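Kindly inspect this today.
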Amino acid sequence: MARLQPVCQATIALAVEVGEFLRAEARTFRKEAVEEKGRHDFVSYVDKTAEGMIIPRLRELLPEAGVVSEEGGGTQKAEEFNWIVDPLDGTTNFIHGLSPFAVSIGLTFHDVPVLGVIHEATHRETYYAVQGQGAYLDGKPLQASECGSVDAALIATGFPYTDYSSMGSFFRSMDYFMRNSHGLRRLGSAATDLAYVAAGRVDAFYEYGLHAWDVAAGIAICLEAGVRFSDFQGGDDYLYGGELLCAGSGMFEEFRDIIAGFYRG
Protein backbone atom coordinates (compact mmCIF):
# COMPACT_ATOMS: atom_id res chain seq x y z
CA MET A 1 0.00 0.00 0.00
CA ALA A 2 2.97 2.32 -0.53
CA ARG A 3 0.95 4.14 -3.19
CA LEU A 4 -1.25 5.43 -0.37
CA GLN A 5 1.59 7.44 1.21
CA PRO A 6 0.71 10.67 -0.66
CA VAL A 7 -2.93 10.10 0.26
CA CYS A 8 -1.90 9.69 3.89
CA GLN A 9 0.11 12.92 3.88
CA ALA A 10 -2.82 14.84 2.43
CA THR A 11 -5.14 13.26 5.01
CA ILE A 12 -2.79 14.32 7.80
CA ALA A 13 -2.89 17.93 6.59
CA LEU A 14 -6.68 17.76 6.41
CA ALA A 15 -7.03 16.28 9.91
CA VAL A 16 -4.75 18.95 11.38
CA GLU A 17 -6.76 21.68 9.64
CA VAL A 18 -10.01 20.30 11.02
CA GLY A 19 -8.41 19.92 14.44
CA GLU A 20 -7.54 23.61 14.47
CA PHE A 21 -11.17 24.39 13.63
CA LEU A 22 -12.29 22.23 16.56
CA ARG A 23 -9.85 23.93 18.94
CA ALA A 24 -11.06 27.36 17.88
CA GLU A 25 -14.71 26.40 18.28
CA ALA A 26 -14.05 24.85 21.69
CA ARG A 27 -13.08 28.25 23.07
CA THR A 28 -16.51 29.76 22.39
CA PHE A 29 -18.82 26.75 22.16
CA ARG A 30 -22.17 26.97 23.96
CA LYS A 31 -24.08 23.90 25.10
CA GLU A 32 -27.30 25.37 23.68
CA ALA A 33 -25.97 24.42 20.23
CA VAL A 34 -26.15 20.70 21.03
CA GLU A 35 -28.71 18.38 19.44
CA GLU A 36 -29.47 14.96 20.91
CA LYS A 37 -29.52 12.23 18.24
CA GLY A 38 -30.45 9.68 20.89
CA ARG A 39 -29.94 9.01 24.56
CA HIS A 40 -26.36 10.15 25.39
CA ASP A 41 -25.66 10.59 21.65
CA PHE A 42 -24.95 14.23 20.81
CA VAL A 43 -24.21 16.29 17.72
CA SER A 44 -23.75 20.00 17.01
CA TYR A 45 -22.98 22.36 14.17
CA VAL A 46 -19.32 21.71 14.98
CA ASP A 47 -19.54 18.00 14.09
CA LYS A 48 -21.48 18.80 10.94
CA THR A 49 -19.17 21.59 9.82
CA ALA A 50 -16.11 19.43 10.45
CA GLU A 51 -17.65 16.63 8.40
CA GLY A 52 -18.36 19.11 5.62
CA MET A 53 -14.69 20.09 5.62
CA ILE A 54 -13.55 16.47 5.41
CA ILE A 55 -15.73 14.50 3.01
CA PRO A 56 -15.38 16.59 -0.18
CA ARG A 57 -11.59 16.59 0.23
CA LEU A 58 -11.48 12.83 0.74
CA ARG A 59 -13.55 12.34 -2.41
CA GLU A 60 -10.97 14.39 -4.31
CA LEU A 61 -8.09 12.37 -2.85
CA LEU A 62 -9.53 8.97 -3.80
CA PRO A 63 -12.54 9.37 -6.11
CA GLU A 64 -13.23 5.63 -6.28
CA ALA A 65 -13.62 5.30 -2.52
CA GLY A 66 -16.92 5.25 -0.68
CA VAL A 67 -17.49 7.17 2.54
CA VAL A 68 -18.96 6.04 5.85
CA SER A 69 -19.27 8.88 8.37
CA GLU A 70 -20.80 9.18 11.83
CA GLU A 71 -22.93 12.16 10.89
CA GLY A 72 -24.07 10.49 7.67
CA GLY A 73 -23.25 13.29 5.28
CA GLY A 74 -22.63 11.78 1.86
CA THR A 75 -22.40 8.23 3.21
CA GLN A 76 -22.12 5.74 0.35
CA LYS A 77 -20.15 2.51 0.74
CA ALA A 78 -18.06 1.18 -2.17
CA GLU A 79 -16.88 -2.35 -2.92
CA GLU A 80 -13.12 -1.83 -2.44
CA PHE A 81 -11.91 1.38 -0.78
CA ASN A 82 -13.98 3.15 1.88
CA TRP A 83 -13.19 6.16 4.01
CA ILE A 84 -14.54 5.75 7.54
CA VAL A 85 -14.76 9.09 9.30
CA ASP A 86 -15.53 10.50 12.71
CA PRO A 87 -15.13 14.27 12.38
CA LEU A 88 -15.26 14.74 16.16
CA ASP A 89 -14.57 11.69 18.29
CA GLY A 90 -15.20 12.61 21.89
CA THR A 91 -18.18 14.90 21.31
CA THR A 92 -19.29 14.75 24.94
CA ASN A 93 -15.81 15.81 26.09
CA PHE A 94 -15.91 18.68 23.59
CA ILE A 95 -19.34 19.83 24.77
CA HIS A 96 -18.19 19.96 28.39
CA GLY A 97 -14.81 21.56 27.76
CA LEU A 98 -12.85 18.39 28.49
CA SER A 99 -10.09 16.59 26.66
CA PRO A 100 -9.35 14.57 24.65
CA PHE A 101 -11.29 14.91 21.43
CA ALA A 102 -10.01 13.94 18.02
CA VAL A 103 -10.45 13.84 14.26
CA SER A 104 -10.44 10.21 13.10
CA ILE A 105 -10.08 9.27 9.42
CA GLY A 106 -9.58 5.67 8.36
CA LEU A 107 -9.42 4.01 4.96
CA THR A 108 -10.35 0.37 4.41
CA PHE A 109 -9.73 -1.94 1.47
CA HIS A 110 -12.25 -4.78 1.33
CA ASP A 111 -13.11 -3.91 4.96
CA VAL A 112 -9.49 -4.16 6.16
CA PRO A 113 -8.12 -0.89 7.62
CA VAL A 114 -5.10 0.09 5.52
CA LEU A 115 -4.64 3.76 6.41
CA GLY A 116 -5.39 5.69 9.56
CA VAL A 117 -4.99 9.27 10.74
CA ILE A 118 -5.99 10.44 14.21
CA HIS A 119 -5.39 14.05 15.16
CA GLU A 120 -5.89 14.49 18.90
CA ALA A 121 -6.81 18.15 18.82
CA THR A 122 -6.33 19.18 22.44
CA HIS A 123 -2.65 18.15 22.47
CA ARG A 124 -2.09 18.74 18.72
CA GLU A 125 -0.77 15.22 18.28
CA THR A 126 -1.14 13.40 14.96
CA TYR A 127 -0.96 9.61 14.78
CA TYR A 128 -0.89 7.95 11.37
CA ALA A 129 -0.09 4.77 9.48
CA VAL A 130 -0.26 3.11 6.08
CA GLN A 131 -0.35 -0.68 5.88
CA GLY A 132 3.19 -2.05 5.61
CA GLN A 133 4.80 1.36 6.22
CA GLY A 134 4.85 1.61 10.02
CA ALA A 135 2.97 3.79 12.50
CA TYR A 136 4.03 7.26 13.59
CA LEU A 137 3.29 10.09 15.99
CA ASP A 138 4.34 13.38 14.42
CA GLY A 139 7.09 11.60 12.49
CA LYS A 140 8.35 9.42 15.34
CA PRO A 141 7.89 5.63 15.00
CA LEU A 142 5.34 4.00 17.29
CA GLN A 143 5.68 0.64 18.98
CA ALA A 144 3.11 -1.10 21.17
CA SER A 145 3.82 -1.80 24.81
CA GLU A 146 5.94 -4.83 25.64
CA CYS A 147 4.02 -5.42 28.87
CA GLY A 148 3.93 -9.17 29.46
CA SER A 149 1.02 -9.62 31.85
CA VAL A 150 -2.32 -8.13 32.80
CA ASP A 151 -1.26 -7.57 36.40
CA ALA A 152 1.40 -5.10 35.19
CA ALA A 153 -0.83 -3.39 32.62
CA LEU A 154 -2.62 -0.06 32.44
CA ILE A 155 -5.89 -0.74 30.64
CA ALA A 156 -8.18 1.70 28.83
CA THR A 157 -11.89 1.17 28.35
CA GLY A 158 -15.01 3.08 27.37
CA PHE A 159 -18.52 3.19 28.78
CA PRO A 160 -21.38 2.12 26.52
CA TYR A 161 -23.82 4.99 25.99
CA THR A 162 -26.70 3.38 24.09
CA ASP A 163 -26.30 -0.41 24.42
CA TYR A 164 -26.67 -1.58 28.00
CA SER A 165 -27.25 -5.26 27.19
CA SER A 166 -23.91 -6.41 28.62
CA MET A 167 -23.53 -4.05 31.56
CA GLY A 168 -23.30 -6.89 34.07
CA SER A 169 -20.35 -8.41 32.23
CA PHE A 170 -18.78 -4.99 31.83
CA PHE A 171 -18.99 -4.17 35.54
CA ARG A 172 -17.54 -7.57 36.44
CA SER A 173 -14.65 -7.01 34.05
CA MET A 174 -14.00 -3.57 35.55
CA ASP A 175 -13.99 -5.03 39.04
CA TYR A 176 -11.47 -7.67 37.96
CA PHE A 177 -9.09 -5.22 36.30
CA MET A 178 -9.33 -2.74 39.17
CA ARG A 179 -8.10 -5.50 41.47
CA ASN A 180 -5.66 -7.23 39.12
CA SER A 181 -3.90 -4.61 36.98
CA HIS A 182 -2.13 -1.28 37.34
CA GLY A 183 -5.47 0.42 36.78
CA LEU A 184 -8.22 1.44 34.39
CA ARG A 185 -8.52 4.65 32.38
CA ARG A 186 -11.55 6.03 30.55
CA LEU A 187 -10.70 8.88 28.16
CA GLY A 188 -14.05 9.36 26.42
CA SER A 189 -12.59 9.01 22.91
CA ALA A 190 -12.08 5.53 21.47
CA ALA A 191 -9.88 6.92 18.70
CA THR A 192 -7.55 8.41 21.31
CA ASP A 193 -7.63 5.19 23.35
CA LEU A 194 -6.37 3.27 20.33
CA ALA A 195 -3.76 5.91 19.52
CA TYR A 196 -2.46 5.58 23.07
CA VAL A 197 -2.27 1.79 22.75
CA ALA A 198 -0.22 2.22 19.56
CA ALA A 199 2.08 4.62 21.41
CA GLY A 200 2.48 2.30 24.40
CA ARG A 201 0.97 4.85 26.78
CA VAL A 202 -1.63 2.28 27.78
CA ASP A 203 -1.10 -1.45 27.40
CA ALA A 204 -4.57 -2.62 26.34
CA PHE A 205 -8.06 -1.43 25.46
CA TYR A 206 -11.51 -2.96 25.34
CA GLU A 207 -15.02 -1.64 24.74
CA TYR A 208 -18.39 -2.71 23.39
CA GLY A 209 -21.08 -0.61 21.72
CA LEU A 210 -18.59 0.78 19.21
CA HIS A 211 -19.07 1.80 15.58
CA ALA A 212 -16.63 1.45 12.69
CA TRP A 213 -15.99 5.22 12.64
CA ASP A 214 -14.83 5.03 16.25
CA VAL A 215 -12.09 2.51 15.52
CA ALA A 216 -11.16 2.20 11.82
CA ALA A 217 -8.29 4.69 11.88
CA GLY A 218 -7.06 3.41 15.24
CA ILE A 219 -7.02 -0.19 14.05
CA ALA A 220 -4.85 0.72 11.05
CA ILE A 221 -2.41 2.61 13.29
CA CYS A 222 -2.29 -0.04 16.01
CA LEU A 223 -1.71 -2.92 13.60
CA GLU A 224 1.35 -1.15 12.22
CA ALA A 225 2.59 -0.60 15.79
CA GLY A 226 2.40 -4.32 16.59
CA VAL A 227 -0.93 -4.37 18.43
CA ARG A 228 -3.11 -7.47 18.18
CA PHE A 229 -6.92 -7.41 17.96
CA SER A 230 -9.98 -9.58 18.37
CA ASP A 231 -13.63 -9.32 19.26
CA PHE A 232 -14.69 -10.46 22.73
CA GLN A 233 -14.92 -14.11 21.67
CA GLY A 234 -11.49 -14.18 20.06
CA GLY A 235 -12.78 -13.73 16.50
CA ASP A 236 -12.02 -11.11 13.90
CA ASP A 237 -15.34 -9.24 13.77
CA TYR A 238 -13.99 -6.14 15.48
CA LEU A 239 -14.36 -3.42 12.84
CA TYR A 240 -18.11 -3.62 12.30
CA GLY A 241 -19.05 -6.04 15.10
CA GLY A 242 -19.39 -3.42 17.85
CA GLU A 243 -16.89 -4.93 20.31
CA LEU A 244 -13.12 -4.79 20.30
CA LEU A 245 -10.16 -5.67 22.47
CA CYS A 246 -6.49 -5.15 21.77
CA ALA A 247 -3.08 -5.34 23.40
CA GLY A 248 0.57 -5.86 22.58
CA SER A 249 1.71 -9.40 21.83
CA GLY A 250 3.16 -9.97 25.28
CA MET A 251 -0.20 -9.95 27.06
CA PHE A 252 -2.72 -10.25 24.25
CA GLU A 253 -3.73 -13.89 24.74
CA GLU A 254 -4.12 -13.54 28.51
CA PHE A 255 -6.15 -10.35 28.10
CA ARG A 256 -8.34 -11.87 25.38
CA ASP A 257 -9.08 -14.96 27.47
CA ILE A 258 -10.03 -12.88 30.52
CA ILE A 259 -12.43 -10.72 28.49
CA ALA A 260 -13.93 -13.78 26.79
CA GLY A 261 -14.61 -15.27 30.20
CA PHE A 262 -16.73 -12.31 31.24
CA TYR A 263 -18.65 -11.99 27.97
CA ARG A 264 -19.03 -15.67 27.04
CA GLY A 265 -22.60 -16.61 26.06
Q: What stands out?
A: DSSP finds seven helices and 14 strands in the chain. The first strand starts at residue 34 and ends at 38. The chain has a mean pLDDT of 93.
